[in-house]
Amino acid sequence: MKSEHILQYLINNINEGIHIVDNKGKTIYYNCAMEKIEGLKKEEVLGKKVYEYLKAMENGSTLMKALKEKKEYKDVLQNYFNKEGRKITSINTTVPVIANDKVIAAIEIAKDMTQIKSLNEKLCDLEKNNKKAKRNHYEFKDIIGDNLILKNEVNKSLRASLSSSSVLIYGETGTGKEVFAQSIHYGGARKDKPFIPINCAAIPSALLEAMLFGTVKGSFTGAENKKGLFEEANGGTILLDEVNSMEPYLQSKLLRVLQDGYIRPIGSNKIVDIDVRIIATLNEEPEKLIDSGKLRKDFYYRLSVIRINIPPLRERKEDIEKIAIYFLDYYNNILNKNIKLIDEKVIEDFLNYEWHGNIRELKNVIEAAMNMIDEGEILSKEYFENKAIFNNKSEKLCFWEGNISISDYLDNLEKEIIERILSKNGRNITRTAKELKISRQNLQYKLKKYSIN
């Protein structure tokens, strides 16, 4: 009885919707997350079949299909409407429960994609209307630095802008991969055509496939006749950010697009010729991704016709002061201030710091300090919240010397690591938790434990 109570508590407190029907298709379980996704109360659905409370779902429901066909459906994209007429987009995995060769129930696990889909569509609309809106974009002049390796990569990118070949940009988080990508697009013949960036890590592959290739009515539940981003970007460029986040099947499908120059919308028998340049980015070494199976080798070779390797900031320390001064001037304009210098001792500490978050981390550090200073003309150490920059010990795992308990030593070490990674990620909780490989809830507990703001 106790284990059943624990399981019930767990299911009701996870983010995914859980919907269970019996062998007749009647709902026997419907958790809190499912209530939020579909805008219904469990009292309205228990004991009823799906099509009794959701519009046009008699033939399209994967729950009904799983019961009828004894078949598992994994990561299926569905569009449908609730009783209020609100459109819902979800990605569902549905499995039949079979005992003695008979289907006794079906379980559906649903991820709500409604807001993600809507936000991505709005973002893509903004990008497509970039020219009309006269939105600022990056160009080669925005790439700051005198480092020879960086200059070589910039020169390679300049030559890449004159062709239509695929480009793969590798660089650690925060090195400026999109700055390079935009510079290549806006520095070439496609500059007057759309530039559409897509964060592959933020969009599940099933939804991303529909967004890229487009759909025809009836191709899946609730599908509409809708052009994909390849058609919308025709003549322009699509940036696939963190392309290794795509499922292998989608990498294979994109490989065919790169080779053949046409697409087939989901559910369609017709092909559509396209002229779209692909620029892709990776924040992990391609060779390691291939070895681990996260990146198809054939897809990598087709993407990396031209490969750009952006050096991390720690390998171009001669550029740190110049970049810091650029951000000082930038935030002077944004914040209406008149700070003229960064203290020499601060610059010296900057040069000794590893900058795991690269240029993005440096930018965040300068922005935070600029918000703290009210008077004076020099940005000195006192205005910087990230004290790890000025304490080289935080950059190394020091040996325990026995002057404090091992427990306190480990707590101090954990606190320093959290502060460093938090600063690197612009104090973004989700990204920091992901890098530390812990849950958001666990990270929030530790932030409170160590009084980290």
TrEMBL record:
PROSITE patterns: PAS, SIGMA54_INTERACT_1, SIGMA54_INTERACT_2, SIGMA54_INTERACT_4
Gene Ontology molecular-function annotations: ATP binding; sequence-specific DNA binding
Segments forming domain PAS: 3-54
Keywords noted in UniProt: ATP-binding, Nucleotide-binding, Transcription, Transcription regulation
Source species, domain of life: Bacteria
Single biological process term from Gene Ontology: regulation of DNA-templated transcription
Residue intervals of the Sigma-54 factor interaction domain: 143-371
Gene3D superfamilies: 1.10.8.60, Homeodomain-like, P-loop containing nucleotide triphosphate hydrolases, PAS domain
Pfam families in the cross-refs: AAA_lid_14 (PF25601), HTH_8 (PF02954), PAS_4 (PF08448), Sigma54_activat (PF00158)
NCBIfam families with a match to the protein in the record: sensory_box
Name of the protein: PAS domain S-box protein
Record organism: Clostridium senegalense
UniProt lineage: Bacteria, Bacillati, Bacillota, Clostridia, Eubacteriales
